[in-house]
């Protein structure tokens, strides 16, 4: 009887000691709801951070959803349906211009060039931008970064997108590639891996990169409402540190290794295509190597928006960009 009582007492004591430890362990993990604008190899460092456990190392559990559109990401943020958004910085300017009392702040840059490519339906020998004149061009959503950068690049090459082209902009972002595949347009502006898949299947031919033509710009950044950043400063720092680890890993790793790590996020895309895309993006410096969104890039963004007639008002870098978190991590 005494032995049974002693054994039961020891089991009860062990349970009592273990329960608080388990509770503490659970409390250390914070869930972050992350909404990405689309699913693209362009965001490879983000998937590396997820796949290699960099978020977990910081005590974060990231729940990733794909919104399929910048407006949808911003809606999720503003309605508290997401904590962090991965989307073009222009969206934060649009919200700010409407007089938001809780602006959306850019705190970590992921990509630093445009990520789209010009795809021709037919093979083109010795491509020149002049060849686009008179063609039907399947563009991106009006007011979005892809379309604004596209127009900026076209104008740099002496092409008025609204006068020299038959410009189509009324197709939803998620359906642009299928519209081109079904026969709409002579040229289309596509993200990867779609551009390379079309080329491999003979549906189109990559003839130019908008990323190499537009210069450095905060094309895609992580952002959150000002109130979230204020109330979750430590969490934002942990999130940014995980992204920085991933950026450095991608920078120093061969494309084949990066492709293998992120393939689970692109199950319908062959490993060879993923590797090709990674190599292409790395060669043109599309992946930011640190999370800092500097003032020159911010000003270049607003120049592009202004050229496209989409800049509602000029916004100072310090009003919508927080570099203090990224700078402290780099130190």
Automatic annotation (TrEMBL):
Answer yes or no on keyword Signal: yes
Q: Which Gene Ontology cellular-component terms appear in the entry? A: periplasmic space
Per UniProt, subcellular location reads as: Periplasm
Query: Gene3D superfamilies this protein is in?
Result: Periplasmic binding protein-like II (3.40.190.10)
| Chief place where the protein resides | periplasm
Which key words tag this protein in UniProt? Signal
- Tell whether Signal is among the UniProt keywords: yes
Give every SsuA/THI5-like domain span. 44-254
Q: Which Pfam families match?
A: NMT1
Using the record, list the residue span of the signal peptide; answer none if the entry has no such feature: 1-25
Q: Into which family does the record put it? A: Belongs to the bacterial solute-binding protein SsuA/TauA family.
What is the name listed in the Swiss-Prot or TrEMBL entry for this protein? SsuA/THI5-like domain-containing protein
Source species: Mesobacillus campisalis
């Amino acid at each position: 009887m005494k032995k049974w009582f002693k054994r039961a007492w020891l089991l009860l004591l062990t349970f009592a000691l273990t329960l608080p430890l388990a509770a503490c362990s659970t409390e250390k993990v914070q869930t972050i709801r992350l909404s990405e604008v689309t699913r693209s190899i362009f965001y490879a460092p983000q998937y590396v951070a997820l796949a290699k456990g960099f978020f977990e190392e910081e005590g974060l559990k990231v729940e990733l959803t794909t919104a399929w559109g910048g407006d949808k990401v911003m809606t999720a943020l503003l309605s508290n349906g997401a904590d962090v958004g991965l989307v073009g910085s222009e969206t934060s300017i649009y919200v700010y211009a409407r007089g938001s009392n809780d602006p959306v702040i850019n705190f970590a840059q992921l990509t630093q060039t445009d990520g789209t490519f010009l795809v021709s339906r037919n093979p083109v020998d010795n491509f020149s931008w002049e060849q686009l004149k008179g063609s039907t061009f399947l563009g991106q959503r009006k007011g979005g970064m892809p379309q604004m950068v596209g127009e900026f690049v076209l104008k740099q090459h002496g092409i008025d997108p609204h006068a020299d082209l038959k410009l189509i902009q009324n197709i939803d972002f998620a359906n642009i590639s299928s519209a081109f595949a079904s026969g709409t347009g002579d040229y289309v502006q596509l993200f990867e891996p779609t551009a390379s898949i079309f080329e491999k299947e003979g549906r189109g031919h990559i003839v130019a990169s908008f990323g190499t033509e537009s210069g450095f710009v905060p094309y895609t950044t992580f952002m959150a409402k000002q109130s979230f950043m204020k109330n979750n400063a430590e969490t934002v720092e942990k999130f940014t540190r995980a992204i920085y680890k991933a950026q450095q890993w991608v920078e120093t790793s061969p494309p084949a290794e990066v492709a293998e790590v992120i393939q689970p996020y692109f199950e319908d895309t062959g490993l060879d295509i993923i590797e090709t895309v990674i190599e292409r993006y790395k060669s043109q410096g599309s992946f930011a190597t640190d999370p800092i969104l500097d003032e020159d890039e911010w000003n270049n963004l607003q120049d592009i928006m202004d050229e496209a007639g989409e800049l509602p008002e000029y916004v100072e870098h310090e009003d919508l960009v927080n570099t203090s978190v990224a700078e402290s991590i780099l130190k």
